UniProtKB/TrEMBL annotation:
Pfam families in UniProt: DUF1488 (PF07369)
Superkingdom classification of source: Bacteria
UniProt cross-references to InterPro entries, sorted A to Z: DUF1488, Shew3726-like_sf
Name of the molecule in the record: DUF1488 domain-containing protein
Amino acid sequence: MTLIFPNKSRTFDETRKAVRFTGYDGMFEIRFLVEAAALGQSAAANASELACLNAFDAARSTIQEAAARAYANRRGNNLTLTARDFR
């Protein structure tokens, strides 16, 4: 099955300084965490909620592509995306 992202919601994880979002593989929910460092320099420098969510929104399609690649390679229902996943 193909990983899809029908839910546009995302949340900021203050403890991890990252953005959480979900995708679906059929009926299975796949949870993702994308680190602030992977969102770009402004998000990494500030690591504030507003900076990270804005950076996520601006790069949503790129992030979803990276998430789909990571899921295809690693499988699992909890995946963390780092800057390395965007190369």
